[in-house]
Each structure stands twice: as C-alpha cells, then as structure tokens.
Write a structure and sequence with these properties.
The structure is a homodimer of 195-residue chains. The first copy, chain A, has 195 residues and is α+β, with helices and mostly antiparallel strands. Chain A is 19% helix and 33% strand. In chain A, the strands form 3 sheets. The first copy, chain A, has a 6-stranded antiparallel sheet, with no helix packed on it. Chain A has a two-stranded antiparallel ribbon with strand order 1-2. Chain A starts with 7 loop residues before the first helix and ends with a strand. Chain A binds a DNA duplex (30 and 30 nucleotides) through helix 3.
Chain lengths: 195, 195
DNA sequence: TAAAGTATAGCACAAATGTTCGATAAAGGC
DNA sequence: GCCTTTATCGAACATTTGTGCTATACTTTA
C-alpha cells in the first residue's frame, strides 16, 4: 500500500481520529477543529476529503460521525470462558471471565479459553496462551480444535483415521488421546499471548 | 455484576447496539428505530435511558451517537508496520498496512510486526505470527525485543552480558547475533496468530 | 514582481440528531 | 368495573452536524 505522505495538519487530524476511535465514538467535524487547532470546519472538511481520497479513512455519507480508519478491521469482543463444564452450553453468560478483542465482523459463535500445559508446544501454543475458537465451524482432520477429554477441555490437533478420532498433541512428550465419546467444542481460529 | 433482566424491546435495542458497535460507528436514535421495529424516537430514547441507568451502556450527553457497551474492554488499534526502514521513524503512517486490535487503553507507542522465520520457535513465536511491541518500554536483559540487525528488524531475546549486547534466538538452529550498532525498536508485549 | 495554485478561515444553510411534551394503548392491582 | 402505572406513539423543537460558498493568507512558479 503506497499512500502519499501526510502534511502536518493532515497528520494532526489523522492522529486525533485514531485516538478518538479508540474511545469508541468517532468525532464530529467541530470536535476535530477544537483538538487540532484548526479554526474552520471547512478546513477540516477539506482535509477529511483528502484523507479519504488517499485511502487513509473511510466514511459513509449517509451517517454523521461515520469515520473509520481504512483497513482497521472490525473488532469483535470474544468472551473468555473461565471453566468448561461437561454437558453445559459453552457460552453460559455466568462463566464469562473477560472479553478478548479479535479482528472479526462478529463475535457470534466465537469463544476464548486459556491454555494449560505444553502439549501443543511445537505449533507455538504455550501454557498461558489464550486460544480463540469458533464453535460453528466444521472441523476437519488436521485442524487444531478444542475437544472434550472426559470432563476437561483440551486443545489438540484433530485426526480422523479409519473412522477413529484422535486428539493429537504437538509435543513428543505427550501421548495421543483416543476419546471414547469424542466431542469437539470448536475449531481454533486464533491464538493470543501477552508478556 | 447483577443487573436487572431486559424486556423484549430492551433486548432488541441492546442486541442492535452490540452489532452496530462491532461495525465501529454507534447508531443514531432513528437508526435504532428502523432496526428494532420501534416507531417513535422517544420510545428508543426511554429504552436507552433505562439501559444506561441499569449499567448496560454508557453515554456522553455532550456528543451524539456516543453510545458504548459497558464493560467491553478498551480496545486499541495497533498499527501493523509493513516495512521497517533503518533510520526512519517506526510509526510512519504511510507504512501502516493494517491495524491489530489489542486490549489496552491506548495504542500510543505500540506497533505490530509480522514475524518471518522460526528463530524464536521455542518460545512459541512462529513464522507468520504478529508480534506487538511497545517502543516506549525500557527493555532489560532477558526481555524479548525487536532489534535492528543491519537494516533488518528482527525479533530476539535481548541479552546484555558484560556490556555486550546479544540478540539471542530461541532455537538451537540459529546463531546469536552480536550487533555492531545495537538498536532496540521496542519490547515485545504480545503475540497474535490466526489460523 | 506578478500570476497561479493551495490551504485555511469565516459564514451560512439544510439535513440529521437528541430531547421534550402530550396523547394513546396496554397491563396490573383494587 | 375503575384507577394507576408503564410502554409506546406522534409531533414539535433546539441543537448538532456535514457541506458548500466566498474571501484571505501563504506558497510556488515563471
């Protein structure tokens, strides 16, 4: 993406937009005026047009305050589930510990779990990581999934071989699991770690 | 957090708000009308007041469209830098390729880079992962950092031993780097992966 | 220096938006 | 039944907001 560089005032406006949108509410033209030192709404208006033409922002002329940073992906808040109870629906509201931001159009069907242990070390899923999974996504052999092993949720690679379901770890120190009643809670679509 | 349950229309409005805010722009009262079947702006207005009193949403009376979902963690949009040029400031706007959602109050000083190669495999940072770094954070020996090796940005563990700076990989297949002019762009604070 | 182009300011206006007021309908208690 | 409470509607109003117009200051070019 090669976009023309920004002038001083264009950059001021752009930076204020980024800061404002973090708060959740896009600013109005006059708020931009106050926060950038520009004294005329038409100045801001001209700058916004330039920013839009050059692909820095996106607007919807039908609505007011409808400014978005171009390329900024829509962010869904994915619920982090504290404890997975066998037999209970995953997305029980009272088990939601926190929300994890995730770049997706909608959080529908998505949930997050904290990983315990190093059984998936070799694909870069470490102890303490948070995995994001889609419960509505059909899992195929080879996908990384969240499965139920007894009454414990576990992250493994799903292998289906001759009709036999295997939860395969990605770490030679761990043994494959041959679940008796295999249940797949969701397909892992993302992994998230904080230092 | 024990909040009173929602009536049918209150839930309709709340669900539409959640859906709208994922798109980035809070809706106006009249947009809520159209999408919930409510026929009067004052009906919506009353429902919004109730939702706010009961702690479901937050509003700023000074601005229009300033509705936010209460409790949704503040999400910063961290710029993903396409190419790091030696000597240039990191956060040059025209090098921003994308934005990564990250749970933080502000994206100030934060930037994201795509990882190339497996030199940090053993700490779970894989090829294609996106690391999030803080350029204003003071890095100590032992931290994972983004350093400049010649004119290439690289993710490594920072080791300072007897005054000698070492960029240490976390993979026995790679050799430590002893940079001549060590430069640390930022301390890695997060890692993000999509499948 | 003069001309041309660009950025900004100042103002005006129509549309969008939040809010208020009174009227009507529905629900519940006596 | 009647009264009270609540929810919704319809319309009106003041403010906010986006946009267009012209004028002025500044920069660039010849």
């Amino acid at each position: 993406m090669s976009r023309p560089p920004l002038s001083e005032n264009q950059l001021k406006v752009y930076n204020f937009l980024v800061k404002s949108l973090e708060g959740g509410v896009p600013p109005s033209v006059r708020e931009i005026c106050q926060n950038t030192g520009l004294k005329s709404t038409s100045s801001v208006h001209a700058i916004l047009n330039t920013l839009e033409e050059n692909g820095y922002i996106e607007r919807d002329p039908r609505y007011s305050r409808s400014i978005r940073i171009a390329g900024a992906s829509a962010t869904a808040q994915v619920p982090l589930i504290g404890r997975v109870t066998a037999g209970q629906p995953i997305l029980a509201v009272h088990e939601i510990v926190d929300y994890i931001p995730y770049a997706a159009g909608s959080a529908e069907g998505l949930f997050a779990l904290r990983v315990v242990g190093y059984s998936m070390r070799d694909v870069g899923i470490m102890d303490g990581d948070i995995v994001i999974a889609d419960k509505d996504c059909v899992a195929h052999s080879g996908d990384i999934i969240i499965g139920m092993d007894g009454d414990e949720a576990t992250v493994k690679r799903l292998i289906i071989k001759n009709g036999q379901v295997i939860f395969m770890p990605e770490n030679p120190d761990f043994d494959p699991i041959y679940p008796e009643n295999p249940a797949v809670l969701g397909k892992v679509v993302g992994c998230y770690r904080r230092y």
